[in-house]
Amino acid sequence: MSQAFDVVVIGGGPGGYIAAIRAAQLGFQVACIDEWKNGKGGPAPGGTCTNVGCIPSKALLQSSEHFEHANKHFADHGISVSDVKIDVAKMLARKDSVVKQNNDGILYLFKKNKVTFFHGRGSFTKAEAGAYEIKVAGAKEESITGKHIILATGSNARALPGVPFDEETVLSNDGALRVGAVPKKLALIGSGVIGLEMGSVWRRLGAEVTILEGLPTFLGAVDEQIAKEAKKAFDKQGLKIELGVKVGEVKAGKGGVSVAYTNAKGEAQQLDVDKLIVSIGRVPNTIGLNGEAVGLKLDERGAIVVDDDCKTSLPNVWAIGDVVRGPMLAHKAEEEGVAVAERIAGQHGHVNFNTVPWVIYTSPEIAWVGRTEQQLKADGVAYKAGTFPFLANGRARALGDTTGMVKFLADAKTDEILGVHMVGPQVSELISEAVVAMEFKASAEDIARICHAHPSLSEATKEAALAVDKRTLNF
What we know:
475 residues; alpha/beta; FAD/NAD(P)-binding domain; 3 domains; 5-stranded mixed beta barrel; 13 helices; 21 strands; Lipoamide_DH; NAD; flavin adenine dinucleotide binding; Dihydrolipoyl dehydrogenase; cytoplasm
């Protein structure tokens, strides 16, 4: 007899495990299926984010930033160090430890919330009266049933046509996190989040890094003024970014990788490197789900088709996160997971795509929420803009990091905040104030009149809001 559950979640990434926990909190009998394995073959829930994405990349960014500070910035603070070295193996071991702590934390949360965990690959077998049969292919094959199914199977790295990932010389985000020694020369194709973060890690550790980007503009989704400020900082650091390139033949061998490309001027170029990281986007993961067995509808990109409430084409089957429309962000998946669990319970789950924050964890960090200035212009929206540089912020001066600015965009008539864009120190944390403000439809004046602690980086947020009305106090 198959075990029967009210809710079965396929995928234990940020969307999946959060959906399972919230459904259990609401009183449902819940199962979560996830196939990720650790180095010993044991369960490693958390999906791409925890295992080969958000968490390990931040661990490496932190380690590499410490190394760069020791080499280049400690002297400014009167701290003398010499012969600073990087132990890459130890750095990777720390990263793996951080990942394991998160894996174990999720397993603990499942136990705490009475979520039944199955380690293996989940796939549809058939639909039956009021439920779906799900096969779990793991150490042993099992069969369970669920009245409601939540699909949270995530995404996979997109490879270059004809150039598969070998994770030795041609790397996805997975291989990029396991490079055992600092490469002398490293190339990345794609200047998005993964490209910039991984490029920053290995540049700080001593690699000569070149990023090749097909688009003619840098970070086209980011506010143009903020993107230009970030580009200046990366150029100064020695991160070589070539825009408007057309990648041609890529040859990989034991000695490295050769990349032929045409630059923005139409000139033929060749780049020979030790490693190549390909970060040209991700594709929805429905491999092995066997959705065709029950008639699950996919779109032309291979994503699962859902409505605004994350309902699929099948009754009582839902889908969330990277495998559906919308931004491929861990926190977006989490919010959808909570919302779906609440909708199953008859509640009104809430996800506002207009207030989903974006962050790039480079140095300087880049963060934004809402619309950019170029989007407002294209839409014909009358707006006011205000900026404030970290150069004029006392806490930033004390930190020794005054790169960047905070920028507010507000409606010209109502003063409602339409977008907030930041580049600078710790803006991944500062952006949350803007998200809260926009969720409550605050005006720039509201932020300008809130008391912010002094000295703090958050004062730059207040000052940028004041700048919307051309009345900054410290610049």
